[in-house]
Amino acid sequence: MNRVDGDPATDRVDPDFPQAAIRPVRTWSVSQPMRTRMWWLTLGCGLAAILLVGTAWRSRPVEIQVRFADGHGIEPGDSLRHRGIAIGEVTRARLSGDSRQVELSIALSPAAAVVAREGSEFWIQRPQVSLSRVTGLDTIVGAHYLEVRLGKEGGKRQTRFEGLATPPRLSQPAAISIDVSFPEGHGIARGDALRHRGVDVGEVTNVELQPNLAEVRVTIQLLAAAQALAREGSQFWIERPDFSMAGVRGLGTVVGGRYIAVAPGKPAAAPCQQFQGLSRAPILFEDTAGSLELVLVSQERSGINPGAPISYRGVPIGRITGITLSRDARQVHAGVTIDARYRPLVRHDSVFWSVSGVGLGVGISGVKIDVESLSALAVGGVAMATPDVPGAPVEAGHEFELHGEPEKRWLRWQPEIDLPD
Amino acid sequence: MRDYRACHCCGQIHRLPELQPGESAVCARCGHELFRQGSWERSSARTAAATLGAFLLFLPAITLPILEVDKLGHHHRSSILGGIAEMLLEGDWFVGSIVLVFSILLPLVKLTLLLELSLLGLLHRRHKAVTYRVMEYVGKWSMMDVLLLAWIVMLIKLGDLVRFQFGPGVVAFALCVMMSILASMFFDPHAIWEEET
Q1: What is the C-alpha to C-alpha distance for residues A283 and A305, in angstroms, rounded to an integer?
Q2: Mean pLDDT for each consecutive 10-residue tract of chain B (197 residues)?
Q3: Do A241 and A137 have their domain in common?
Q4: Closest partner residue to A21 among B28, B37, B167, by Cβ?
Q5: Number of domains in chain A
Q6: Chain-chain contact of B12 with A18 (C-beta, under 8 angstroms)
Q7: Contacting residues for A173 by C-beta, under 8 A, at least 6 apart
Q8: Which helix (H) or strand (E) holds B46?
Q9: Assuming Cys at both sites, which of A79, A92, A255, B90 could form a disulfide with A86, CB separation 3.0 to 4.6 Å?
Q10: Is residue A144 part of a domain?
Q11: pTM of the shown model
Q12: Are residues A300 and A369 in the same domain?
């Protein structure tokens, strides 16, 4: 490059720089101010931003709060599950203002926003091992999690909940709640089941001692399907191991925990929500339709107990349902139910005698012991016989005398009576 | 009007000829374009457009969830801002504030200055020059792209350990980074001086 030194004016005015070449501008260039294709890009960015915010907004989590008495080590990041899949996440776990409860904030995934409705129940899943059931084993090695059971369809929206202390036993929400007062609790606890015909139909949600210290009041939530149990005449008792010579019952409760059993009242009975529980299992008959109710009158109880069998030629045909004193207290009345099939056996001239205890006879041939059955030895028993020429059938409520001993001829009676199939 | 212009590419100084509309001056030595009628307006407009785009995307980029991670039953979803807040809350002041300053505050400052230089015209030339230098300096430390890279590296590393899922924030963030790179690419410092010619 030739630099001309010397006259600075010349240097300033006319330097020896080459002139730039000139090239036509390609036609796509737009040169007006503010007109550039880049604005489309801005617009695109704006749209993208709106779109992204929109999708994020649509999938934003729904926040709910659940309070628990015990946090069981739940932490932020733990999941909320429903039917085994995660539908939300604990975002915060902290003590409530009064330090009595733990308050968990849970972010529900948008698809599971329905969980936030009235009646939903939350509990913390944790390992639970008892002889009757093992649950929550996955939480031993994996993370803890919360579980939820949905409230009723169409429930109102709700975002604050009280958590359950124990996992609910029932798979569906309870329909109604009933109160049963028991004279003795036998260790029944919250979370125990109410069973009818061997399946869980309700759950004990509260057990409390009454202020008079004489009763225990148990609150039970009933399933919708078992709602009909809440009617007058239903009997509730706490099933527990019961060993007697008449039978062993409630063995399942030895290892499986106590439960409350129920015998429904008559179908047409009025609805009822307050019950007096029984102190022990009542004597129940599976099928009482068509059976015959009788009364045996005797001077003494002579060793018979409720539940004792009525036998005809050694075959059980019915049971003693209850034993009371007569109104004037001069006699003992024993209620008897004869099964429907054996109803024709009972006639006006039938005789009943007690076979309870052991018949001990000492004769020339030695000692003779008469025992009808082992169970008769324990709870007593009643035998019945009908003459060779049977009399007229009896109506329900007929009274018979209960003899202490049979007469010889009764034992030889062999009437021919048609029994229904 | 006499005007001189050095070639960006080879450094050759030229006298600029009088240009008719539709013509551009190119370097006599290497052919690089030196000047074009309305070039500073175009550069400003492009820069402004890209900057505005970056601005629009900036907010979603830092607030929308960027990543959803599932690990051993733990589900975690976090945005950049949320992640920084978490770090600060957990007492990780150093890393938290570094990320906050270098990937949120400085990029924001840079974008604002670019927008001011290219579009708003609030400042006098001389102040624009100062602004430009500040912007240049800040720009070196605004590291959104580095953060994005760090994220990607982390994801590739973690890919086998955890199950993760991109959130909408990633798209916004990537677009935002692209826009801010475009904006600084388009910005022609000559525009500051040629505005009033």
Answers
A1: 11
A2: 74 78 78 72 80 88 77 65 84 85 86 80 74 83 76 73 75 87 81 60
A3: no
A4: B28
A5: 3
A6: yes
A7: A119, A121, A149, A150, A151, A152, A224
A8: helix B39-63
A9: A79
A10: yes
A11: 0.50
A12: yes
